[in-house]
Amino acid sequence: MALRTALTFLKKYEKQTTTIVRTFAPSHFENGVWDTGGTCNRTVPLGEGDVDWKGYELEVRGGQVEEVERVRVSGGYSRVGVVDVTKMMLVRADGHPGVHWDNQYSKGYSDCVHWCLPGPIDAWNELLLAVISGLS
């Protein structure tokens, strides 16, 4: 509902703006979540067989993509695009800091939400450039 509301509002300003929606970026915690002892200490990408391709992450992604398509088709909003990172990030459990990043505020906590290491984010930037180029 939040994305639908935002896209409906932004459509009013289509001539002045371009809207890019980045799909859901999953976390990779195992044995709990970030504040209950969950870890994400993987050092290599996951294999396709190691990923739950029917999980909630892809449901969230699907909803995002559907909303963009809905506003594009039903409202004629042509300056809206999607940077779809969900599937590729599901296999990149190694692409973010683990417990060894020396965070002075969260000692011992893994960080599966902030993607800041070279590799995954570089791919996001390439995708963003391709989406922007396709909307121009």
TrEMBL record:
GO-annotated molecular function: O-acetyltransferase activity
Entry GO CC: Golgi apparatus
Coiled-coil boundaries: none
Annotated ranges, domain Trichome birefringence-like C-terminal: 1-130
Recorded family membership: Belongs to the PC-esterase family. TBL subfamily.
Protein name (database record): Trichome birefringence-like C-terminal domain-containing protein
Taxonomic source organism: Acorus calamus (Sweet flag)
